[in-house]
Amino acid sequence: MLDIAAAESRTADLVAAATRSGADAADALYVGDAATQVSVRLGELEDVGRSEGEEIGLRVFVGRRSATVSSSDLSADALAALVERAVAMAREAPEDPYAGLAPEDRLLRDEPPAIDADDGGDPAPAALRERALAAEEAARAVAGVTNSEGGGASANRVTIALATSAGFARGYRTTGYGCSASVIAGEGGAMQRDYAFHSARYLEDLEASDAIGRRAGERAVARLGPRKLESGSMPVVYDPRVSASMVGHLLGAINGAGIARRTSFLLGKLGERVFAPGITIVDDPLRLRGLRSKPFDGEGLPTARRELVQDGVLTTWLMDSASARQLGLEPTGHAARGTGGAPGASGSNTYLAAGTLSRDDLIADIKLGVYVTELIGQGVNGITGDYSRGASGFVIRDGRIAEAVAEITVAGNLTDMFLHMTPASDLEFRHAVDAPTLRIDGMAIAGA
């Protein structure tokens, strides 16, 4: 894997070779990664894996025609062949009136902002093994846990560099660490499984293994003896484990490519209220140590914190340069890509801001409702907003979380759900997309 300076140089050289070979414009992306994973089960080492790889992707433009070619062979001969093949393919590609690099005057020219995403660490497999064992041991120690699917720990390092024929050449490096446990409670047909995990950029920020394991065990035991629930309309409260999925549905609906294709249920809603008053949703690619922090986007544009939703009002689409041209707007710095294709658009560290009520206060007036801790299936229609997903969790009775419930379906329409959403005050930054506990009134529940 190349260091940052070498990766910047390699991508810049590849772009220069492409323009010498007849490309009108070009960009190149390098991604190198190294990862170690350790898994254990029932107190014994089960697997140790180490992977290292690097790949470079070249995108070239001949007029409005473009092609992208990638290679994991970074030798001089392989890259020369890559350039020749990419230019030849571009000459035969169909014209796209929206194709092209990002606007040159929008590229990041200053020193990239610090995102503090690399702690320089490289823990040995033995240290990862101890973390995995500690997580599983703590989970198995919870009364009622009867079996284990295992514990795991991982560490990785990634180097990313991007260069364009407009003179941009920058790179950055990240590290990442994870720890998890998954266990089973109960016996026979009454068994229930659950898990817990945590990921962080810095090893020192990774949650203690025993806390992760204990949470996995307690979750599995709490799910024992699930009951059926009669169908009806009632409030649904989403645990933070699953509430971030609501933010994910928003990100999908405001993607510029979908808006340009007119395939989003939020089409025409820019500048309008789409969430309840007081709801704010933020995308922050510059959060220090954030899991998706990046100093520039997949086209070399600077990234910046944005309020996607402000007091319930939708303020922007997420756009790369191509979708922005199609919509007659400016790119928003949300371009994301791999080495094998053109950029798309996506969020980074995105979160729904906390409300003012504690979780207990949020559910205190609910006579009968559902507290959802797991969602099943992909029953969301991005064009109409229709929402129907399998779920499990707990019944809410008289303002308190009561018995476990399973095999239910929660349904509604995202347009209405967004407008009737109330957040609790328990937001934590644990994932790339986060949300506090969320309450949505008037959901349809299909149970027994």
UniProtKB/TrEMBL annotation:
A Pfam family annotated for this UniProt entry: PmbA_TldD_3rd
GO MF entry, a single one: metallopeptidase activity
Q: Where is the Metalloprotease TldD/E N-terminal domain?
A: 26-90
Q: Which residues form the Metalloprotease TldD/E central domain?
A: 122-224
According to the UniProt record, one GO cellular component term is: cytosol
One GO biological-process annotation of the entry reads: proteolysis
What the entry lists under SUPFAM superfamilies is as follows:
Putative modulator of DNA gyrase, PmbA/TldD (SSF111283)
Q: Where is the Metalloprotease TldD/E C-terminal domain?
A: 231-447
Fetch the InterPro entries from UniProt.
Metalloprtase-TldD/E_C (IPR045569), Metalloprtase-TldD/E_cen_dom (IPR045570), Metalloprtase-TldD/E_N (IPR002510), PmbA (IPR047657), TldD/PmbA_N (IPR035068), TldD/PmbA_sf (IPR036059)
Q: What is the similarity comment for this entry?
A: Belongs to the peptidase U62 family.
Cited PANTHER family: METALLOPROTEASE PMBA (PTHR43421:SF1)
- The entry's protein name is PmbA protein
Task: Supply the source organism for this entry.
Answer: Sphingomonas jatrophae
Upper classification of the organism: Bacteria, Pseudomonadati, Pseudomonadota, Alphaproteobacteria, Sphingomonadales
